[in-house]
């Protein structure tokens, strides 16, 4: 396993007017890793995701992916570079089927463009069929292929979560950012999700995960980064973070 970081944040600061949302945040996601990003509510975790994916622009500092800066890129450019994400609140296209939801993500990799779609050329039809096949494989990967033709809003909650991950994976990322993937899940669903996240890592996709379920975080993460009030207060193995007095204080108080 290489020790080079696929995704690296260096001294990232984010200011909203006079409010400092992030201050000098620095960490990386190495190849073959699952990294947990934890902290109390309002600590800055989702802000970090938004900076990485181009939703917010860092006030200072850098974000690099695969050795190249992605600071200032628009979200679709970050996705095309190989960084995909899910959201804390499920953002499926509720009137589309599960398969159609995943096919949407694959269109960032298409070549024929709008004219091919309008003219319905032979090559465009072939590409569309390939997209359909790849989308179905993504559903299979996350164990929701039986819902391929079901309207996404009709899926059970835990399966909607897995569908959203399937959609992100269909864009063929090298790093996936999971924002509270176990939120709202029961213990059995969370255990299943852990197996799928390990499968994603073993499939060659690096994972950066925000999660409040400590059983999930401690059970699958190779390394954990802890933030509080926009500042990194700890980084290390699950065992190290569990024992860190700064982490205990952030969650439980003095």
TrEMBL record:
Presence of the UniProt keyword Zinc in the record: no
GO biological process, one term: L-valine import across plasma membrane
A Pfam family: ABC_tran
Domain ABC transporter residues, every copy: 7-254
Keywords for the protein's UniProt record, in alphabetical order: ATP-binding, Nucleotide-binding, Transport
UniProt GO MF annotations: ATP binding; ATP hydrolysis activity; L-isoleucine transmembrane transporter activity; L-phenylalanine transmembrane transporter activity; L-valine transmembrane transporter activity
InterPro entries cross-referenced by the UniProt entry: AAA+_ATPase (IPR003593), ABC_AA/LPS_Transport (IPR051120), ABC_transporter-like_ATP-bd (IPR003439), BCA_ABC_TP_C (IPR032823), P-loop_NTPase (IPR027417)
UniProt cross-references to CDD domains, sorted A to Z: ABC_Mj1267_LivG_branched
PROSITE patterns, alphabetized: ABC_TRANSPORTER_2
Keyword check for Hydrolase: no
This protein's name: High-affinity branched-chain amino acid transport ATP-binding protein LivG
Species this protein is from: Desulfovibrio ferrophilus
UniProt lineage: Bacteria, Pseudomonadati, Thermodesulfobacteriota, Desulfovibrionia, Desulfovibrionales
